[in-house]
Amino acid sequence: MRSRDAGSCLRQVVLIATVALTTLFVVPARSTTLDDLVSSVVRVKTFINPDGTSVANLGREREGSGLVIDESGLVLTIGYLMVEAHAAEIISSSGRALPASVVGYDHETGFGLLRTLEPPKLKPLAFGRSADLKEQDPALVVSYGGTGAVLPVRVASRREFTGSWEYLVEGAIFTSPPHPAWSGAALINHDGKLVGVGSLIVGDASGRGDGPGNMFVPIDALPPILGDLIADGRIVGPGRPWLGVTTNEAQGRLVVAAVTPGSPAEKAGVRRGDVIVGVGGAVAKGLADFYRGIYAQGAAGATIPLDVLHDGEHRRFDVKSMNRLDHLKLKSTF
Asked: Which domain CATH number covers 76?
């Protein structure tokens, strides 16, 4: 039997979705229609500062979905689509293209904000409460591309997510089946409200080895920082400490896979292949434990007593941390 591309498979699933909306899913709140949801999800295209530190991993031009969240044209997306961007464009489901400016980025949640230079005349998505989502609840994933990009899913699990790039999300939302266009996609609850923003595809959505899915950043993390992002482009204050290490869990060990050039970790002497033992004498039992050990030392700027196995010897590196945003080539208005 011939394999089919993701787009063909998704179109088949959408045929099922039209039925599922009346069975699995209580059709969105009376004031919201499926057409409203689809039109509120736009295409995001960004152009990145050529000197940006994220270019090597993410490229100079990026595309994904964005979510209109107010009538003036504020667009929420996943931050890796727009971090270090110097220009951006928003394209509506009708094909209308609008230039957009960079508003703000938050490394801790992974959210990014853009704003169209003129109102897009699209109905904004209303926020739901991601805290109310439970395992096995039905939901919709909506990415840019019209009704052909709508996929009914279920919540596979609610748990923390740790990324190798010093990223920790509490109460992340994992859904199944996986949507092939997850970046910046909207997770919509049974009331037709936004409860998550698409971040990743994962191999184990349930945490029990049941199969792949997507990870969404909970929308509840946005309101506490939204004002700061709009006013200042970043959250107020020093933020979490950042070292600049990419760390993988392998055979029960935390192995440094990469060290960011010019980062605090590199300056302190940490190298690729080192094994993270812990922080300040406390053994790290996993990535989440490692990150919490770093955060417990204080805000960005704190010196982190990093215990590592370096060249076969146990070493203590005192790493002078920094705010991750201060290492990026962000807009001067940040």
From this structure: 2.40.10.120
